[in-house]
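Entry:
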Amino acid sequence: MVELKQSVIDEFRTALRGPLLLPGDAGFDQARSVWNGMIRRQPAMVVRCVGTTDIVAGIRFAREHGVVVSVKGGGHNISGLAVSDGALLLDLSLRRGVWVNPYERTAVAQTGCTLGDVDRETQLHGLPHASGLSPGPASQG
C-alpha cells in the first residue's frame, strides 16, 4: 500500500456515503472477512459501499493514488480472491436488494447479494435461479 497522508484519507472519507474503515476501526475485521474463515488477508482500507457513488469514488481514489483495488460482493468466494493484502477493498456486501418482476420472470440483484438473498425473493414467485459452477466440457457426457 502506498503511504497516504491523513489529510488525503480524511478528504476521501468525506466523499463517501458509506464508512471508510482502517485497520483497528470497529467493523474492519468483519468487512474484510469472507465466508472461508481461513482467509485472513489484510487490506489497507475498506470502503463499505452503500451506493454507486461510493464505488466510483473508491476507484477514482485508487487510480489517483496508485492503490490496488479488490472487490468483495456477498463474500462467498471460497478461495478468498476478493480480498488483497494492502489494497483498497470495495466491500459491496451492504448492497443486497433483489427486485423480482414475476410477469417477465426476471430478477435483478445488487452486487452484495448472497444466494440466500436471491432465493428468498425469487422463490416467493416460484422462480428458480441458476447458480454455481459449471462442470465444464470435459465432464459433460
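The longest helix spans residues 52-65.
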